[in-house]
Amino acid sequence: MKRKKNSVGFQFELFQEETKSPFDKLFDIFKELITHTSGDFDEAMDWLEQLDQEYQLTDENYTLDDFVEDLKEKGYIREEAKSDGTFDKKITAKTERAIRKNALNQIFGQIRKKGAGHHKTNSSGLGDEHTGDLREFRFGDALENINITESLKNAQVNHGFGNFELTENDLIVEDTHHKAQMSTVLMIDISHSMILYGEDRITPAKKVAMALAELITTRYPKDTLDILVFGNDAWPIQLKDLPYLQVGPYHTNTVAGLQLALDLLRRKRNTNKQIFMITDGKPSCVRMPDGSYYKNSNGLDDFIVDKCYQMAAQARKLHTPITTFMIARDSYLQTFVDEFTRSNRGKAFYTGLDGLGEMIFHDYENNRKKRIR
């Protein structure tokens, strides 16, 4: 039921569920498929056609051809000419934004945009976000934070109702919290093990990255987010590259990822900095001073592991916490992540892919409240 107000009070009428158009229903599925295919339109449409045959998603009134035409008309795909005179269909920036928003709704669906893009810290005083609490005036408090009504009441109590006088000791202000900017680097493991044994770990990790990026850019626009991927080496990627991210035939050079993350953060003027690392936990590669690679995929190599511990300790000295989200449950890898976390005094979560986005948001919020100095 939904409530409708009239001149007498309220009356009730039957609630009518919002119905989606045939395009919107197919577009929801398309956004999932295009994420799994890393932006490959033709492959996504092949999958959509198979689903259509099995589940009768379309009918004679609205076909897949109609859907493709609508995608073009609405600006979600574009056509690029090939040398043989045919055309390739590519998704557009509008689709990339829709995919990020879809990931945000799936992973952080309970979050709503508010404020100007800052977070509270645990420090109160000369801040800029009202807490709802009242306190006495202190030297340096902003005049606009003075609560006139409560101050006048206080003056009447202090001086009597017949003798109005307002002094500094009568003033009551609304308490505030500081808001701090945060610079975050998100590291995504794209080594071959992220799709090993038939388990797709990269697609959910990629969706979390898109959701986090959309969250920061819409709710916390004054924060910064850098995204990097690491395999044999590490390199930064753009926000627009996320839907196209794929695993490569790489080992896992965690050290290179951390070195690049710290280098990116050194360039930020914010005091508050942090690193999120999504990985299946096993470092297996480092680059040597002569440019060669030392690789070992058999268990945990002491030489590689020690390099990781050194990077964790270096980040700690730079007051940069590392939160590791390990999406595997091997006990020997958990032992490594435990020691890595102790070296950094950071945090670690051991999880499958369920709940990963919720934990990332929770820790992002917690770090934003703590990292003010």
Structure characteristics:
single chain; about 375 residues; alpha/beta; Rossmann fold; 3 domains; flat; disordered N terminus; VWF_A
Model description:
This protein is 38% helix and 23% strand. It has 373 residues and is an alpha/beta fold. It folds into three domains: 22-91; 125-179, no CATH class; 181-370, Rossmann fold. Mean pLDDT is 83; it is low at 1-8 and 110-128. This is VWA domain-containing protein.
Termini distance?
51 Å
Shape: flat
The CATH architecture of the largest domain can be given as 3-Layer(aba) Sandwich
The H/E string reads EEHHHEEHEHEEHEEHEEEHEHEH
CATH level 1 class label of the largest domain: Alpha Beta
CATH homology group of the largest domain = von Willebrand factor, type A domain
Compute the number of strand runs.
14
Number of domains: 3
Walk me through the topology.
Elements: E1 2-5, E2 10-13, H1 22-36, H2 41-55, H3 64-73, E3 77-81, E4 87-91, H4 93-107, E5 119-136, H5 148-159, E6 172-180, E7 182-189, H6 202-219, E8 224-230, E9 234-237, H7 254-266, E10 272-279, E11 285-287, E12 293-295, H8 302-317, E13 322-326, H9 331-344, E14 347-350, H10 356-370
Parallel strand pairs: 7-8, 7-10, 10-13, 13-14
Antiparallel strand pairs: 1-2, 3-4, 5-6, 8-9, 11-12
